[in-house]
Structures are given as C-alpha cells and as structure tokens.
Amino acid sequence: MTGDDFTGFTEVAARKIPEIATRARHFRHDKTGADAVFLLNADAAQTFAIAFRTHPAESTGVAHVLEHCVLSGSRAYPAEKPFVELLKGSLQSYLNASTFADFTIFPAASPHPIDFQNLVDVYLDAVFFPLLTKECFRREGWHLSADGTQQGVVLNEMKGMCASPVHMLAEHARRSLFAAGPFSHAYGGDPDRIPDLTHDGMKRFHRVSYHPSNALAAYSGAADIQGELRRLDRIFNQFERGEPHQTTTWPVITVPRTLAFSHAGADPSRLALNWIFPAPEGRLAELACDVLCEALVGQPFAPLRRALIDTGHCADVVEGRFCDDTSPPRLSIQLVGVNVDRTEDVQEVVRETIGRLLLDSFDRHSIAGAVNAVEFRNRDRSSWKRPHAVGLLLDVAKGWRLGRNPVHGLGFAPELAELRAAPAGFFESMLKTHLLENPCFTMVVLTPDTVKADNTCKAPPRGPSGALPDSRAPRRTPGATTGIPRLALRDLSPGPVEDLMTVDQVDRVPVLFHQRHTNGLAYVDLALDLRGVSDLSCAALFARVLLRSGTARRSARDMTNRIGVETGGLCCEVLSAPLATGAGEATHLILRGRVLADRVPCLFDILGELLSEWQIPEPQYLSEIVGSEIVRVRAQILPKAHEFLDRRLRRHVSASEQTDGLSYLQFLHDFQSLILHDPGLAVQRLRECHATLACRKRLTISITSDRRRAADLRRSAEGLVSLLPAGKTVEAHANGAGSGCPEGFILPGAANFVGMALNPEARETLRQAALVVGLKYLETGWIWQKLREEGRAYGALCRGDALNGVSTFLSYRDPHILRTLEVFAAAGQQLGHGVSRDDLNRSIIATVGRLDRPLSPPDSALKALTDWLTGSCAERRRAFRAEVLTTDADDLNNIGTVLSEAGKSANIVIFGSKQALGLALAQRPDLFEIKDLPGE
After folding, report:
1. pTM here?
2. What 3-state DSSP class applies to 393?
C-alpha cells in the first residue's frame, strides 16, 4: 500500500521480525512529523502507548509531576480523575504512565475492542489537551498543608524512593557520568527541589514537550491501522509543525572521578562502578555491548563478579548490566557490603581482571551463556511490572527518542547469530576500548549516615506578607459530568476465555500441557508439594541453594555454565494459595525454567540431574549464597513494601511470610549464624529438605510451549520422573504461623507503608464474589479519595479472599499513619452507607477485568498450575464469575457489616521512620510495638 491510502500519514518503513512473530509498520504524520508505529502480532490484548521526549533542565521533577497532572482532567473529559474513572469501570489489562530521564510514556491495554478505543481516546485527549489546574498541581506536585508541612503525591513518592539506598546509589551512579543534560538531574524529582517547581513552570514544560512534532504513538496487537491513523490525524491536525527535542547524545565527564555520599539506610556500605560506553552504531554494536556486560559481570560465575566476591571486596554484586536508559549508554556495577577503606583496591581488582582476560580471553561458555541470556531477554520482555507488549512498546520508544528507526531495538536473531560466531579477540578488544582505556569512569561510594534524621523537606519561602501560601484548593462545580467513556455490563463476554490445557500422568506424576504462543520458547514448572514440611523457610532456602549448586558429575561453576548455555535460566518461588474447598492452603515450591522450544529435553535433563544428584556447597560458598539471599530480600522491602505488609498480615493463614517475608529474612540471618557456628547442622537441615522434597509423590509438572509436540514433551518428563524416588506419603497441609501482635518496623526515610487486616469470625457467611467487588469499589473509590486525593499517599490496595476470611488494606509511600488507619477501619461502614447502581456496575466490570486479564505465557501457565493444585476447576471459576456479575447493593451492604465488625479486632503492621512511629505512639499509646527489621 502507498502513503496515499492513510489519511494524513505516509508509510516510511515496514519490517518483519520473525523472532517475535511481529510485523512492524512505521508511519509519519505529514503535517507535524509525528511518528506512529504498529506492531502487528497475535497478542490477546491490544496495547497503545503515546510517548514524548521530555528533557528537564533541573531536579524539580517537572516531567514526573506533569505525567501525573495530565491524567487529572482534559478538554473533552473534564473529570477531576479520569485515570481513576478508567480504573473503576474498564477491562484494562494495563493502565499506567512512566517518566524516564529523557522521555515520558503513557501505555494502556485491553482485550476488549470497545474498551481499548475508550482508553486511547481518553489518553490522547489527556496528554494533548490537559486542564492542568492549580488544584491538580497542588495535589499531585506539592503544597503546604494546614500544619505547614509540605505534601503532594509526587513529593511523597520521591521521599519513599529516596529512602531506598538501592535507588539512591543508582541515581548518584547515573548522574555522576554526565556533565549536563537530563541524565545529570533527578528526573523523578529531588524532594528538596520539588518545592521549587511552580504551576506556571509545569505548564510551560507541557507546551514545549507535549506536541505531536515531539511525539510517538505506538500500537501492539491486532490493530485497525487506517482507523487509528484517522483518529491520530484528527488530533495532530489541531497543531502546527513544531521543533522536536534534540536526539543527540549528551555531554559526559572527561576524566575519572570518585564521589562519596551518605544515606541513613546504607548499611552495609555500597559502591557503584560506572562507565560511559561509546554510542553504539547499529543494532549489532548495541547487542555486543549487552553481551559483553553479561559475560563480564552478569552471569553467576562471570570473571569480574567472582573476582570482586572472592577477593573479599564485597558481600555480593547486586547489579552488573548494560544500561540503555541513557545516551550514550553505560555499564553500572553495584556492590554491597564493601569496606570503605579499601575502595581503591576495588578498582585494582577490576584492572587486574580485565588484564587477565585480555591475555587469556573469555571462556567460551561465558560468551555462549551471555548471548543466550540476551536472546531470552529479547524474546520475552515481560517483567513483574509490565506485560511483554508494553515492554515491546517501551523498546520502540527508547529507539525513537534517540532519533533512530523506532523498531531498531526489536530484532535480534541475525545479530546474535553473528556474535555467537564472533572471531577470537572480538569481545576482548571491546574490554580494552570500552573499559580499560575509557576515561569516562566514576566510582560512587554510599556509606551509612547514622546522624542524619529523616528525609524531611526544607520549608519553602514565605510570601511577601510573611504568610504561608494558601493550600486550599478550589472546589469544582457540583454536578459536573465526567463524560468518561466506559463499558456497560451488556458489553462483557458471556464467559471467561479458558486456556487450553491437557493433563497426563507419568508414573502417577501429573503432567500439565499448555499450548500458547511463546515466541519460540518453552516454559517448564516443577511444583513440589510442601505439605507436612515443618520448616518452610528452610525449604525456600533449599531451592535457591539447589539452583546455585553442583552435582555428582559437575561442579557449581560447570552446572551454572551448562544452565547458561543450554537454557534461559532457572529460578524458584514458593506458591501459597487457598484451597478451593476453603479447608486450608496449598503450598508448593516451584522450580521454573525456560528454554528454546527444541531444547526442552536439555532443560529436563538439567532439572533431573540437580534433583537427583545434588551436592550441597561447601560452608564458605553456602554462606555466600545465604548472604546473596539476604541482600535480595532486603532490596525488595522498599519497592515492594505493600507485599511484605500483606504477607505479614496474613501469616496466620498463609505460608508466604515464612518463605518470602520478614520471617524468612529473620531465618536467613539465623541460618547465616548457624553456618558460622555449626556448619554440620546447617548442611544436615538442607539435606533433610532435599530428601523430603525431591520425590515423585510431591511432584507436579507443567509445560508451556507453542509447538504441538506433546509426545516429545512427555518423553522428556518421563526421563526426569525416572530419576526420582517414590518418596513417603504426603502429610496434611502445614498451617501458617501465629498472627502475632500489631507491629511497627523502622525504615529509613519520611514515607510510611500502612497495613490493616480484617479477619471476620463468621467467614462462612461471606459471599466471596461480593467481597471482591466491594473491595474493588473501595480501592478505586472511597479509599483512593481519602488516601491519594486527600492524604497524598502514592497509592492504596484492598485485597480479600473469603476462602481464608482475611481482607487486607494497604497504603504505600504514605505521609500518614493514624489517619490512614482510621480510613481503613471505616471501610466497612462506608460500604454500609450504600452504593449506587452506577458505582456497583463499574466495580463489577473492573472485577471482571481482573478475572479475565490476559496473561503472559509463563504467568498463564502458573495460574493454570495454581488452579490445578488448589482444586479450582473451570466450573468453579465460571460460577464465581457469574456471582460477580449478579452482585447487588444488598450484598455489598452485608459485606460492609461483616468488615465493620471485624474492624473492632483488626491487626496492623506498619513500616515507617522511627520518628513517625514514635509520633503515632505518642497519640495512641500501645497501638503497636516498634521493631527493627530482621538483621538490624
């Protein structure tokens, strides 16, 4: 087709990308120069994103605040909170916005065509024609509250981010390399600088940055190209052509330097080694940089990683990767547990290690494993934060914002094939130019600050009269209609789309087969039943030790090399979910692996060898593994604080707190001490876990692939099963730990995370569907209003399951404690006040959207496996969905009564600063017990 077939646009490029089963088409708007990209593939959901190059000139967080404010009312949709309105009544499978150092992106996705059109309409109007009121700026950015303190959603979000030593080290590391430009600033906003931002300054930034000439619209899935281009043309034609932001690289430092900072949470001390790389010329050079970094420091036995750990210069290397989020790109290596008196020795270890590699070359397994790791990251771009399609569009935006072909970063197969066959000395030459002789290097040291108080912000200057600025926001006209397009109940499909799954048995071991489009990958999950296991924390640790160990035939290094060369990696998690009967919980240890579809037998061979021939590591290496696990868990506490709260609050009904929560963290510290004082006992405990779990009676196998090769896959499963003993009869389900008393754990920083659990005694009277709908209503309505809009917390969640009777209310990056607890306690009463038919319908639709949400192949396989293990059959799921659709106001009123009664004996868990916890106890003595995090 020619450009004349597309209203207002000309097609400039088209390309097939077979490795991800996608055809890409690139268009440019004739009048404004705006770019539009369509990735045509078989994704179950349609995904859209609109992106802008945003280059802040300071650290006020202007791009971040603007990202929040454009979603708070626009010309066509003057609702105060259109983003929340979409959350209330949409089947959206993804709805978010993200600010990066030099661009901002707004992605949305839905499996429902009408709903998708609604999301795109609202997002396009929001970004190009926002209201940007002063009220919105004060709420989302910053304002002075009645008590004179500074408040604001973004301000409180960044206070929470700055409380994390992981975030602050990464921030200092990136900024240390750039002499000017957006990468030299705190693009999310420095809490001390955010109050320098003005409402007029934010509006000026919008006029300059949010323009079609500086924009990219991108789609993934089954798109109506002509229809979408007509819609974009109607928007873009309202603008004249403007000047896009520059796409050149930014000025960097020219001589090496060392910088030192302190942080209240940096215990132990941390260090980052950072290099600016030459701007890659082409996709091959870009992937070569990624492979080099993976081979040097990314793999478990990568030479620089091992040198830094083995010489005692750090407890662990927590990051070592190629970073393409800057221009030019960089390598950042982050170490934890460093001796601040020996930081210069760290640089010497780096020089010596690179020098040896220049003489001896990389081991062939290192390069093969690194290429493999890079290939799998490109085949599956999903993460715990976003689905694969959003990852694709993010990569499109990354290339576009640098002035490249937007689909530059999607293909990889030909280039990786060339790198696999790279001549001797290829990567060693890169070591010399990119690292050893590179003057663009910094070392950033982050040490504990034992004196500095909480990260409170400076008081802003007073007005000319000496009075504090008025923080009262103007009221909107009562009765104004929102006009937000949304679905009706009649638009929903009659029933859920069930994934195809077949079930077989191999020597009485269930084998589940899932056929999904997987971009040429296969996923294997081994579920080991933990019923009757008395020490669940030890079982969780055993799995992580298992995956880093050797066997009777191979050392840990050799086994790690084999995993890297032949698979896409192994990981593990503990899955705990209520049984469908309501009688307890199913808890399983899941060993997860991914591999190219034609190499499934290799993956099963590796898993079989690990389970049947496992050799426990020597105490020194075992201690290192436990130390790494401590670092991993601690690093997750701040970014996933609400998850830790939820696990802690549910610990009397769920095992998850013992396997990935604060109890698990305490176990790790105790086990580390046990290795030091009685290594024989530590080894014995792990061996007992292995003997108990590695057997056929506890095993269920799940295989996901896009190939019709059930017979071949079954033969692979047979080989693994044949290696395992039958095992003893599995005992009754283990119970969770005791509920404990209300707790307040001390965290650095000025943001709090508040959790409350309501545990109704009469749980058998709960209607599960009504509970889920009621909590969705609260989460997107009243609690959002009280905590986010009025309280300026970054977010809040409501979770409930009538099977175990516990509902949890969670806030994160919250400036309040007592006020939030009062809101949570009043949640049941709010439901009892009555819910309008309109609000009820929107909550039902949002709940169905959650139930029917398309999942990535590994996630959908894990959900199907969970349903199988808990006895949740298709009939139960259909019945539950039908109950959701028939929920009425009386049902929610009954849920409100039950929750109100349960609120009289609610349990609470809080993460906050010592000062904030102390102030709360001063007003409510004996409300909770203040504790340090395990290990502090």
Report:
1. 0.92
2. helix
pLDDT of residue 94: 94
Contact 447, 268 (CB under 8 A): no
User: Please, what's the b/e burial string for 568-601 (b: 16 or more CB within 10 A of its CB; e: otherwise)?
Assistant: bbbebbbbbbbbbeeebbbbbbbbbbbbbbeebb
* Residue in the structure block whose two tokens are 């708070």: 72
Higher per-residue pLDDT: 499 or 417: 417
Please name which of 580, 901, 578 lies closest in space to residue 758, comparing C-alpha atoms: 901
**Structure token pair of residue 278:** 């030459």
Indicate the SS3 state at residue 179.
coil
**Cα–Cα–Cα angle for 594, 595, 598, nearest 5°?**
145
How confident is the model over 430-457, as pLDDT tens digits? 999 999 999 999 999 999 986 544 433 3
What is the Cα–Cα distance from 818 to 754, expressed in whole angstroms?
A: 9
Angle, nearest 10°, between helix axes 662-677 and 619-637?
160
Q: How many CA atoms lie within 13 A of 325 on its CB side?
A: 19
Residue 114 CB neighbour total at 10 angstroms: 14
Name 269's Cβ contacts closer than 8 Å, sequence gap at least 6: 336, 337, 338, 339, 340, 445, 446, 447, 448
The CA distances from residue 95 to 297, 779, 866, in Å, are 35, 15, 26
H or E element: which one contains 655?
Answer: none
Q: Which two tokens stand for residue 737?
A: 């730990």
Half-sphere exposure of 813 (CA within 13 A, CB side): 21
818 token code pair: 């007592």
- Portion of the chain with pLDDT greater than 70, in percent: 94
The pairing of strands 743-746 and 907-912 is: parallel
Q: Specify the DSSP element, H or E, that contains 322.
A: strand 316-323
- Residue 34 CA: distances (Å) to CA of 15, 55, 67, 428, 820: 19, 18, 20, 41, 44
In one-letter notation, the amino acid at residue 57 is: A
Name the H helices within 266-387: 283-293, 303-310, 343-360, 364-379
Q: Are 218 and 49 in contact (CB under 8 A)?
A: yes
State how far the Cα of 400 lies from the Cα of 214, in Å rounded to an integer.
10
Q: Which two tokens stand for residue 52?
A: 């802008």
DSSP characters for 255-291? S-EEEEEEETT--S-EEEEEEEPPPP-SHHHHHHHHH
- Among 547, 697, 533, 701, smallest CA distance to 616 is for 547
Place of tokens 């000439």: 213
Residues 135/474, Cβ–Cβ less than 8 Å = yes
End-to-end CA distance of the chain: 65
The label of the residue with tokens 């949709």 reads 77
Structure tokens, 279: 């701007």
| Residue 499 clears pLDDT 90, i.e. is over it | no
Spatial separation of the C-alpha atoms in residues 292 and 295, rounded to whole Å: 5
> Rounded CA gap, 294 and 306, in Å?
13
**Spatial distance between the Cα atoms of 243 and 249, rounded to a whole number of angstroms:** 17
Element (H, E) at 143: strand 143-144
Residue 644's pLDDT is: 97
Q: For residues 90 and 837, give the distance between their C-alpha atoms in angstroms, rounded to a whole number.
A: 16
